[in-house]
Structures are given as C-alpha cells and as structure tokens.
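Hey team,

Filing this mostly as a record. A colleague (T.K.) asked me to run one chain through the structure pipeline before their review meeting, and I want the input and output archived in the tracker in case anyone asks later how it was produced. No errors, nothing strange. Just documentation.

Input sequence:
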Amino acid sequence: MIMRRIRLTSVVLVLSGLLLLLAFAAEKPAPLYTVLRTRTPIHVDGKLDDPVWAAAPVVGKFLNNVDGSPSPLETEAKILYDDRFLYFGYRCQDENVWATLKKRDEHLWTEEVFEVFLRADLRYKSYIELEVNPLGALIDIYLVDVRKPLHYESWNSEKIAWAVQVDGTVDGKGKDRGWSCELALPMEDVVPAPNIPPKPGDRWMLNLYRVESKPQKAALAWSPTYRNDFHIPDKFGVIVFSDKQVP
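Output structure:
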C-alpha cells in the first residue's frame, strides 16, 4: 500500500512538473530580432568577414529546445537583407565537428547541422526549412503545412547561395574549434510573403536551430518549442524588417 502511494506521488510530481513547464512556455513571449538592410550584397564564402556583418546585431542566445535551459555550446547568428536576398550568417563553437552526408536534400538533421525555419505570412500554414551541415551539404524544403513537405527534390531554390568554413576537421575525432556558414535565401522564394522585397515594419516568423551529435547530442533553438520537435510554428520567434542600413 505504501509503495503504491509512493509511486502515485512520483507520478503526480512528474505531471505537475510537466504542466509547469508547459505553462512557462506558453507565457514566455517570442523573441524578436530587427533585420537591418545591407547596401552592398554579401560575398557568400562562409567567412563572415564582410564589413556589414560587424554592424549587424547578434540574434540572441541559443537554448536547449526542450526545456529552454542555457547551453555551454556557443552559437552566434546574424541576419541581414536587401531587395534580393535574406542573408544568414552563423558561427558554431564545436570541439568535435562531425558530418558524413554530402549530397543535396539528404536527411541532414540526423547529424550535425544548422537549420532555418521561415514562415512569412500567418494567414497561411506553409513555411520553408533550410539546413546546412559542416560539409557544405544543403537541404531546402517547402512545407505546405506542419510536417507536410513537398517532395524534397521537387522544390529546390535555384538562386540560393551558401558556403561553409571549418576550423578543424569534419571527422568526429575532436580537437576542432568550430564552423561557420553564410546562406543567402532569394526573396523570390519566400512564398507567400505579403511583400517582396519586404517593407520596413513587415514581420515574419522565424526559428533557428542547431543540432549537435558529438561528443554529446544537443538540440538548440533561438526560440525553444519546449517539445522534442522543431516543427512548432506557433513557437517561432519574430523578425521585423528595418529601413536602417548598415554601411
């Protein structure tokens, strides 16, 4: 009888903890990032050494996606735009860079990868998913609804540009420092955005994720979904386009 009460008490405590976590996630406001305009197109080589990147603000901390707790893995991301492209630049601190997949549209999320989820219009359920891994492989996906993608090979951005730089080796043996990437998404692909190019004040929903495999697994997010799932559009953060220009 006593053991049953102990088990019941344990279950109640676990459920109570889960309910508190869900309540906290529901109350926490979505992060917001102001995207500045660049006067000059970015040279996409993965180095992030264009002067305009230095003037762009950092997106914010990447947290553990399931519970929103801090992560010891440093991840820095920045975003800029012009009339033709939405630019993403990021650096991932990583002492053990690892990936094996090299072809476009492979299941990159099963290894180490950086991901962009973009929903440009709340009137529609569609969104875009982009992933780049340390070997420079890309997957670009157009989803008509949550977890309902068009066949991967049937939708490929023709003008997308991306490049990766690795400080170390991509062999999973350690002694690395990290990797960086630049990604330029053509504005013409962001369907159905209300305005192309976006007007100052336009707001799109966005989330950024990082998946780590070695030496330990980790799933990090700019705006945690508080579930073991990245595909929760209601938990995405918000970007607002500014008319302020970086040099």
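Quick notes for T.K.: Residues 31-246 form a domain with the Immunoglobulin-like fold (CATH 2.60.40.1190). The two ends are 72 Å apart (CA to CA).
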